[in-house]
């Protein structure tokens, strides 16, 4: 073993996670298991996942299934269950598209991106970034560019780390929103959002030691871009999907006409 390798091992070991942090990571893993549930024969719109060339309708139906799993995931979190029903609803409604953006897209490799340019998520949930080219012509180019900037803001190793991306989704979920008006709910959202932000950093520290700062450096930019992506995404599917072919939950977030 080279001297530099020994030094790195010592440095990383100095950032070992505490018992409470390990338990918190286990809780995150447990909550997110449902997002990787297999698609059995009874799964509605299962065929949309299986297609290699997905239509805008397929993409909306995939989003509908993923949204429902994100709701299920949230309900498994003790932190989420501390909120009032109104607070829970507001967080999910305001943060859903941002979480979908982190979760749903892959195959973003392009000369305009640094590194591999790929979000590493299970294959059954991947949708090529080229899907933007099939959507509303009035906003697809801007939306695609904004998404690519979001991916580029994340360190390559973070993009490949599913647990890191899952914690990032919880940072997104527990972002203070104007729609969360109850003071107790707002205090809890701020508290837990900060907690997940620190947990992400500590998790990266346990992997990379002092270098964790550079791995998390792009997160504020990425989070800001996520908010922008969500704000501008409403009309992405307008005119590209027939209303009767889209599932109700997806239609709550994306206009079709």
Automatic annotation (TrEMBL):
Residues in NR LBD domain copies: 20-257
PROSITE patterns, A to Z: NR_LBD (PS51843)
Keywords tagged on the record: DNA-binding, Metal-binding, Receptor, Transcription, Transcription regulation, Zinc, Zinc-finger
InterPro entries reported in the protein's UniProt record: NHR-like_dom_sf, Nucl_hrmn_rcpt_lig-bd, Nuclear_hormone_rcpt_NR1
MF terms (GO), sorted A to Z: nuclear receptor activity; RNA polymerase II cis-regulatory region sequence-specific DNA binding; zinc ion binding
One annotated GO biological process: cell differentiation
Similarity-based family: Belongs to the nuclear hormone receptor family.
Descriptive protein name: NR LBD domain-containing protein
Species this chain originates from: Pristionchus entomophagus
